[in-house]
Design brief:
Length: 174
């Protein structure tokens, strides 16, 4: 590659890295339904069983250092907004489910967690980078999506959660 092309490519990469990584979803599309095995308890979790509840889905992996910060933020959100009905669900994509279970118990013991070792749920939500956090409104629509966990993302995430929990949902799941 010629020196001028290398410089142009580097500038393009720098611009891409500096752009916002978090934004409200352009349209409120219905989140795809899924069922996944629980990491934090026996049984499974089905998203449609929680319609009527604002939710945060936090896609993470044990090998992803920014995911650790996102998990910490997810626990803080759960503690702050649980009284307004918010439920936070960690979606782990590690192939080694037992390693993920042990890590989650240590790192985020208060969060509900599911395993997605084959990446089916991640594919449904177009997860191609880590971490990804998705905010769902009471009707199960994607209200916001955040990729990565840079400075400022936690504030943006909290604003999105505040918006979906601002008024009580008409019907809450049990």
């Amino acid at each position: 590659m010629k020196p001028g092309h290398v410089r142009a490519f580097a500038l393009l990469l720098a611009f891409a890295a500096s752009t916002a990584v978090a934004a409200p979803a352009p349209t409120l599309r219905k989140a795809p339904d899924f069922t996944a095995p629980r990491l934090d308890s026996a049984g499974s979790f089905t998203l449609s069983g929680h319609r009527g509840v604002p939710m945060v889905l936090d896609f993470w992996a044990t090998w992803c250092a920014p995911c650790w910060r996102a998990l910490d933020a997810a626990e803080r959100l759960q503690a702050s907004y649980e009284s307004k009905g918010l439920q936070v669900l960690g979606v782990n994509i590690d192939e080694d489910v037992e390693k993920a279970r042990e890590f989650a118990a240590r790192r985020a013991p208060t969060l509900a967690m599911v395993a997605d070792p084959k990446g089916h749920v991640a594919d449904m939500f177009d997860v191609h980078a880590m971490p990804v956090t998705v905010v769902l409104d009471c009707e199960g629509r994607i209200a916001a999506r955040f990729e990565g966990f840079r400075d400022g993302v936690e504030r943006q995430l909290e604003r999105a959660v505040a918006a979906v929990t601002a008024k009580p949902c008409e019907s809450r799941a049990d």
